[in-house]
Recover the amino acids of this structure.
């Protein structure tokens, strides 16, 4: 591989469907999954004489996004016609924004990678603009014809364009995920990738490391999963480097990713590129957003993920990794905040550990989300409190969680008694078990006395086993140390 | 400026219009006339003038986000030459 001599340059264009009830320019419904063509008004079908009227909530979504990324919200922006012919676009043009988008600038801080190699990066945004979605073409066989469903035509989109500042598939995915979390966080998009609510186009080019001009780019269209985004960019970077190394020039093109083959293939070249002939749409007047409206949206905005993560680190003592993980999802962050409220700030760290390791572990295994977790924040808080005051060992805590997971509705204290989970703190009994364990493990005792600290674990383990997990491991360790020191 | 018939054919292709060479020549001649008018407009001094997005000095009215439109499928589908299972049928076009 020659990848060390080349640098990839990637910018993403992400189409997010906004969570309005009705379409951006008509009063037809936007709900997903309706029977074909049941949600199409005269406007969406482009009947002559109809006129678009802009949806206030779609504009509010754009304002909220602009505020969340600290971009500039245009006091006056303009809708333009993007002209092209396609059967799922009844008007022969898409209403979009071109020269004066509703949001420009702004930035998003992302966290790339894991563990010791993780790093933060600020990605700048070029713009975000409002536009309407097109309908859907179905190319299954209808006697050699295509079927057209216009339900999606006119669904509001916010297209979010990043600067070409990403340099690897990992960075592109981290950015896309951060943006996905943010639009869900502020409630402007449901983020459902399968239903096409969040669609990514990636502009990819490579250049010799140290070069200041950009290489020729190819645009990968319509990636609807983070895994495909990663695979497609990795493939595209390797392919482009290979072309350059073989002395071939890259031709500007739009490509599609084929997930079954793991390859990109050319959809159209520069010569075939669309000439959209944008011009201001005479059917729509300039969109004016007064400062008071922006102030109202700002006041209604929830605390943003990055600020919340910083608060978790500063006030709760969480690691950057744990804080970032918790704010990657609004529902998870809400669950955590509710747990800490019930357990007390002093227990925030064990709350995070139990939530991220035990609860998320179980959810991930069952491919469920936090919304469907069988435990409540109050239950988790009670569990953490009982582990931290010594009533439960961590094994007992896991058994308690398992009981709730299986549908038991009794309280923590009721279950601790009913299932006999109470940790054994009876020193006389523990001393008895320790004496037995020392006698049964002469090899570990000898190793420990010879200076091998780890040999102690085997003896602690024997006591824990004999107590059926109910002994307090710290206390056991202390008792063994004392017994072996004498 | 003088329009070539090549440029006219390119524009016609973008607008999905079928023009004969004679029509293209006629069109080139007419557009030359239109562009002569535009050249006069271009000559107007516009330094420091904000581009005009719309000739009416009004701003966009907004509507509340409410579903107000009923299902119009039967009425719209009655206008279509071909439909099946609630879908409009068109000649197969794979994005090219």
């Amino acid at each position: 591989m020659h990848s060390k001599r080349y640098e990839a340059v990637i910018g993403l264009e992400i189409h997010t469907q906004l969570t309005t009830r009705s379409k951006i320019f008509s009063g037809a419904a936007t709900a997903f999954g309706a029977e074909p063509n049941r949600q199409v008004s005269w406007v969406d079908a482009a009947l002559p004489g109809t006129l678009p009227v802009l949806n206030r909530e779609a504009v509010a979504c754009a304002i909220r996004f602009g505020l969340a990324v600290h971009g500039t919200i245009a006091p006056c922006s303009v809708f333009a016609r993007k002209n092209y012919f396609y059967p799922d676009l009844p008007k022969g043009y898409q209403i979009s924004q071109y020269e004066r988008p509703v949001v420009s600038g702004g930035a998003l801080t992302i966290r790339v990678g894991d563990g010791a190699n993780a790093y933060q990066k600020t990605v700048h945004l070029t713009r975000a603009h409002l536009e309407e979605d097109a309908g859907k073409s179905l190319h299954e066989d209808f006697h050699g014809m295509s079927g057209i469903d216009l339900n999606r035509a006119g669904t509001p989109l916010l297209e979010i364009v990043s600067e070409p500042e990403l340099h690897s598939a990992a960075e592109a995915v981290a950015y896309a995920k951060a943006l996905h979390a943010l639009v869900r966080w502020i409630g402007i998009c449901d983020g459902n990738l399968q239903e096409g609510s969040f669609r990514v186009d990636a502009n990819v080019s490579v250049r010799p490391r140290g070069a200041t001009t950009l290489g020729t780019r190819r645009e990968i269209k319509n990636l609807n999963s983070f895994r495909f985004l990663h695979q497609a960019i990795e493939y595209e970077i390797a392919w482009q480097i290979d072309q350059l190394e073989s002395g071939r020039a890259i031709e500007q093109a739009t490509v599609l990713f084929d997930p079954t083959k793991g390859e990109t293939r050319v959809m159209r070249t520069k010569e075939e590129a669309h000439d959209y002939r944008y011009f201001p749409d005479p059917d729509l007047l300039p969109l004016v957003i007064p400062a008071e409206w922006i102030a109202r949206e700002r006041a209604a905005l929830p605390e943003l993920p990055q600020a919340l993560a910083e608060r978790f680190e500063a006030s709760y003592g969480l690691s950057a990794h744990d804080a970032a993980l918790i704010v990657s999802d609004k529902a998870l962050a809400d669950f955590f905040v509710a747990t800490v409220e019930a357990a007390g700030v002093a227990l925030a760290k064990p709350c995070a550990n139990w939530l991220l390791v035990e609860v998320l572990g179980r959810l991930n295994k069952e491919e469920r989300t936090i919304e469907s977790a069988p435990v409540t924040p109050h239950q988790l808080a009670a569990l953490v409190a009982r582990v931290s005051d010594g009533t439960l060992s961590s094994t007992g805590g896991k058994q308690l969680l398992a009981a709730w997971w299986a549908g038991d509705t009794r309280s923590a204290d009721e279950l601790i008694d009913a299932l006999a989970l109470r940790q054994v703190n009876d020193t006389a009994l523990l001393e008895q078990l320790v004496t037995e364990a020392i006698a049964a493990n002469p090899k570990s005792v000898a190793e420990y006395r010879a200076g091998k600290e780890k040999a102690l674990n085997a003896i602690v383990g024997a006591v824990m086993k004999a107590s059926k997990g109910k002994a307090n491991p710290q206390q056991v360790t202390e008792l063994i140390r004392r017994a072996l020191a004498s | 400026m003088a329009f070539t018939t090549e440029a006219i054919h390119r524009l016609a292709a973008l607008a999905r219009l079928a023009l004969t060479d004679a029509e293209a020549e006629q069109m080139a001649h007419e557009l030359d006339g239109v562009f002569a008018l535009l050249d006069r407009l271009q000559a107007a001094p516009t330094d420091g003038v904000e581009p005009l997005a719309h000739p009416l000095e009004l701003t966009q009215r907004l509507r509340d986000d409410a579903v107000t439109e009923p299902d119009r499928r039967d009425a719209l589908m009655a206008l279509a030459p071909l439909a099946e299972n609630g879908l409009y049928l068109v000649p197969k076009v794979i994005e090219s």
Remarks:
- Helices of chain B lie at 5-14, 21-42, 73-77.
